[in-house]
Structures are given as C-alpha cells and as structure tokens.
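MOLECULE: protein
FOLLOWS: sequence and fold
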Amino acid sequence: MNNRIQWPDPFDDSLAGGMVYRKFLYCGQLYGIGFQELPTLADLEAKHIKLNHAFPQFRFPQNNSVWAVLFDTIDPVTDSPLGFKHVKFDGLAGGRVLQNVASIIYDHYNICDAGAYVFSAAEDREHERGTDLSVIYSRALGLQGHRTSRLFSPFIGWNAYTDIDAGGRSYVVTTQSYQP
C-alpha cells in the first residue's frame, strides 16, 4: 500500500491489506467500491487478467500505480459485501449506479494519479441478469464493437481493453497518466 497518499473523506483506508474504499447510497441500497494497489506485475498477474490478449503492448507503469477495482453491494447491518449478487434496478437506476462508480474512480484517480485500473465483470451464477455485466461494461467502455458511452466520454486520454475474446471477463483501463 502506498502510505504516502493521504486519503480524504469519504475515502477510507482503515481496512487490512491495503484496501482503500468508498461507499455510497442510492435508491436505499448501500454500495462499496474498493481499490487495491497492485505494486508489481506479479500482483497484477495474480488477478488472472489475460493482459497479453487484452492489451499486448501493456507495460507495467514505472512512475505510477495500477489499482484493482472491486464493486459490490454492502449489507448495512454487518457492513460486509454481499458477494456480487445481482441487484434489480427500475428504469435508469442501474445507469445512475454505474455513473456513481465512474465518478468515484475518477475521484480516486485525482488523488493518486493511477496509471491503470483493472477489474472483472462478476459472473451471474444465479442467472438473474437480463444483460451480462461484461456486455454492460463493454458498452460503457466502447469495446466489443460498441460505441463509447457518454459515461466514459469525460475520461479524456483514458483507454480501455478487455480479454473477453480470450474467454476472460477482465478489463484494463489506462489513464492519461499511464507511462510504461
């Protein structure tokens, strides 16, 4: 964990293992976004992201960090993640949640100047989602033949890659600060 970064509220770095997180409430549901710094290429590879397919020219940044992003609903009683279970949304609420997540990632970037973010689309083990998360993420990021959504358009100089073609469910997003 990079201890030289001072994480202002509402970010919290009190969890063990170097996790930084932030919570938000939307439509009565509590959500948490966790950020885990990956200081080495070995730490990145341990996340099982097939970078050689998603982004063959990727080089681990020398001057800034790579962060894994985790997103889940939070049980308000136990303050624990609910295990990536599907949440049913009415109308445009799902898009608003994704907009909140994107905004928090951008806030995180403005504090630590990350070079890249990595994350994976959770599988729908209960078969409750009408649209798979990998499709939703690919649409938002302009991958897999989709146009980039307005959600990702403010991230000038950021580029997204995925390993879906290699059978994965992972994403790599490099920021404007990415320097191999």
Notes: The helical segments are 41-45, 51-54, 93-112, 133-141. The chain has a mean pLDDT of 84. The radius of gyration is 16 Å. The first helix runs from residue 41 to 45.
